[in-house]
Amino acid sequence: GQQLNQSPQSMFIQEGEDVSMNCTSSSIFNTWLWYKQDPGEGPVLLIALYKAGELTSNGRLTAQFGITRKDSFLNISASIPSDVGIYFCAGQWGNKLVFGAGTILRVKS
Amino acid sequence: GAVVSQHPSRVICKSGTSVKIECRSLDFQATTMFWYRQFPKKSLMLMATSNEGSKATYEQGVEKDKFLINHASLTLSTLTVTSAHPEDSSFYICSATDPANTEAFFGQGTRLTVV
User: Fold this and answer.
1) pLDDT at residue A96 above 90?
2) What is chain A's mean pLDDT, rounded?
3) Contacts of A91 in chain B (CB under 8 A)
4) DSSP secondary structure string, A37-92?
């Protein structure tokens, strides 16, 4: 079945630092999505990517859809304490989502 | 933006009892909803696709008689965990896709603890 490899598994960074995480897949997806999940809550969509090669920004967040449609990265610039949480990539094929394992982000003030 | 509401947010039940979890799309109609299960610090695993007016489609390894899904209206899907056991304790999350923009919105999740 389809699988997504997300890395790193966790990060502990200093406030103000930039963060980068990525996902790769053995399968092609039509859409790549990045979500953030706070403890005890459902995931919230951060960025959606619809075209191969697309680079999209949302405030301090930037994400790109790989040209091969098998990978994506998410960058967070100038991290702040409220960036703490679990970040998931997800590939969409049809109406189904396949999630990566998640990246746990901790920010030290 | 579109909102998906899930209820209850937390539930504790005794072994052998059944628990029903509701997922509602509040401002759009969803012909399809999805149910996921998430273990602590793990990813979301798709359990089943809930189809309005027809049977749910279950992922491999998910017991359909254990996890009953009903999608009786375009705004409500329910997941019933039947004869719950402690190993069913988990975080259950639903999602619904807004047909206007194909974006998937997630409920707040339900923490189920079976004692």
Assistant:
1) no
2) 94
3) none
4) E-TTS--EEEEEE-STT-EEEETTEEEEE-TTSSEEEEEE-S--GGG-EEEEEEEE
Chain B residues with CB-CB distance to A92 below 8 A: 104
Q: How far does the CA of residue B16 sit from the closest CA of chain A (Å)? A: 25
Q: Which of A3, A47, A97 to mutate to test the interface with B (most CBs of B within 10 A)?
A: A97
According to DSSP, residue B14 is labeled: -
Closest approach of A51 to chain B, Cα-based (Å): 15
Closest CA to B34 of B42, B45, B20, B19: B45
Residue A83 phi, psi dihedral angles, 5° rounding: -75, -10
Nearest to B81 by CA among B91, B72, B73: B91
Q: Are B66 and B13 in contact (CB under 8 A)?
A: no
Q: Determine whether the interchain pair A102/B42 forms a contact, defined as Cβ–Cβ distance below 8 Å.
A: yes
Asked whether residue A19 carries a pLDDT value surpassing 60, the answer given is: yes
Residues of A in Cβ contact (< 8 Å) with B103: 45, 48
Dihedral, B59, B64, B67, B73 alpha carbons, nearest 10: 90
